[in-house]
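To: structure subgroup
Subject: Chain for Friday's discussion

All,

I'm putting the inputs and outputs inline so they're searchable in the archive.
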Amino acid sequence: MRLAALCLAVLYWFARPVSAQSIAAGRDQFQRLCAGCHGAEGAGGERGPDIVSSRRTRRLNDQQLGELIRNGIPAAGMPAFPLKGGQMREIVAYVRSLIAPAAESPAPGDAAAGEAFFFGKGGCAACHMVRGRGGISGPDLSDLGRRRRSAEIEQALRAPGTVRTPGYEVATVRLGNGRSIRGFVRNESNYDLQLQDFAGTFHLLRQEQISGIAREKQSIMPALQAAPAERQNLLAYLSRLSGGPGPARQPVSEPTGAVPFADLLNPKPGEWPTYHGRLSGNRHSPLRQIDVSNVSGLAPRWIFQIPNAGRLETTPVVVNGVMYVTAVNEVYALDAGTGRQIWHYARPRSRGLVGDAAGGINRGVAVLGDRVFLVTDNAHLVALHRVTGGLLWDVEMADSRQNYGATSAPLAVKDLVISGVSGGDEGVRGFIAAYKAATGERVWRFWTIPAPGEPLAKTWAGKALEHGCGTTWLTGTYDPETDLLFWGAGNPCPDYNGDERQGDNLYSSSVLALRPETGKLEWYYQYTPHDVHDWDAEQTPMVVDAEFQGRRRRLLLQANRNGFFYVLDRTDGKLLRATPFVEKLTWASGIGPDGRPRLLPGAEPTPEGVPACPAVEGATNWMSSAYNPDTGLFYLMALEKCNIYRKSPEVWEPGKSFYGGSTKDIPGEPGKKYLRAIYLQSGKIAWEYPQIGPATTWGGVLATAGGLVFFCDDSGAFAAADAKTGKLLWHFPTSQSWRASPMTYMADGKQFVAVAAGSVILSFGLP
């Protein structure tokens, strides 16, 4: 009992709040007892080590730190200091203030008054941003308290320039043409330099352009002019900044270097400003510098490694010479010409997720104005500043504890950012939602499946509706001519057992045409009514204008996971043609004039299991497709494979998948992947390129005006074929299992082709 009481007393002693007076008293004791060896601020002296940077010291809790001071380290020459309770508590408090991040041991003072000074009289916000407010001609300070110690913050206020943020060295760069640019050196090497001027424009310079660099030793930050109380209050405010967006949100601005919506509608030559390159979803580029005559000379120009990223699924976005790439909960801004990093944003991965969200998947960003938009694994949508990477706002789209996640790039349309959610095998209720790009305020949400009691619930006869899925996990497309947003809806749940969801299960496995301002549904087309094979309709709904059936038409093209290539009239959703693009297709004999599949017997899952084609991976999937208006061909990755489908009774549970059955490969029948080109007019296959490999990769295609189709081969090679004939023209072995699709862009007057391979971004160009 006495021992327990002693332990409680010790814990109480160290857990008591620490006052400014205690820290000040501890400072006095430290100067008297410790500074002679460890230096006045613990950074090391003639006879003692640096205790501020020591990992060993930082790992100690307050009780352990007190014991170390009391007992000393005789073998290392540190004497014991048997201080009494109050004295020990004071010196521990001071040492803790030296070694801990400021946010863990905030400086004393009136933080509210310090905030008012920062944004008012002090003028600090003219340069620095904090929680979405302030300027951009200085480092973002939103998480300063997590990055710096109180002593470092105090030192920076007292003597600007002695504590510098990496990437904010000021220099004036003289160019060979006589021009000079002054700004922050965000990164550099012997070969290039990434400079951000004070207006927020990036200048991505090459060594041959530079005639001289004048580096400034003095900080551009002026010495703080403040009364002692104002200084202390400012320190109290800054030391408490631990990250996260603030309640005040700025509108999307469009200064020099920002991205107006007009540049998404009509991209500047050589840019790739959206996930698909075009809002239409067509990964066809007008670039032709790399063509059939010279593609054999293509070689890697730079490589960027993302640490601990696993297999990347991102498609790079390039605007104004800056490339944005993602891993789960991370964004990197790179010099698109060299791959050198400009800034990096990251937040920890979430725990306790299920499905795709738990797998660490992120496919890219959207860019609009001065913002970069990212979804997180736990179904948040965040806005970052284009120049600094600082967090501007963060909204929760759905509760990840209910199995929701998010994995794909948002889509920016007008002044909105639109996103779907993942969880399509985990029993969530799917939706598409639009948010104001300026503030993160939700404008509308469209549910892809009905709630019980709504009219469409009659298409869900049974008990499954409450967890019916129909998620929206891949990026949609937009058509300015009809002012319609097109988005695919996923499979119904449980995936393989339709017994408790009799009916068509609307709007699962469908494409939806919505008004972007309101989310109003204009039309829908359901590809697979009452889907029991997990053939969601997330494949890109591609906007194409072309001659079709004798007249110019506004078309929507999709190669669906169920094995049919669809051509719709995108003004009203009318089916114009549906043709198979795989041979192994046993669930339907075709698509009737009414748009519904003609079902074949024996394909629906049973408890014993039945073979059916395509396999659960689909005849194709989320990997990108492309259409070349010069050839009139639609390009895609096609999988010839079947599965044995089995159904079983299942009840939805939080934190678990909701398949209602299972699938397995048919023994002796491995799948085979093909790059195929389909005639738009007839739906027939023009040519195909069979691949050798495990048929388990997920890389897509890119078409260019240079007459090429770039694709990710199952063997692990990145390759290019003649767009007209399918003849292989070039390949580069990467030994990767593909999880991403390629894109192309211009930098320094040269065309590059980039793709995520494993945990790296590879960018190829001509010599």
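Points worth raising on Friday:
The domain at 698-767 is CATH 2.40.10 (Thrombin, subunit H).
Residues 429 and 687 are 40 Å apart (CA to CA).

D.
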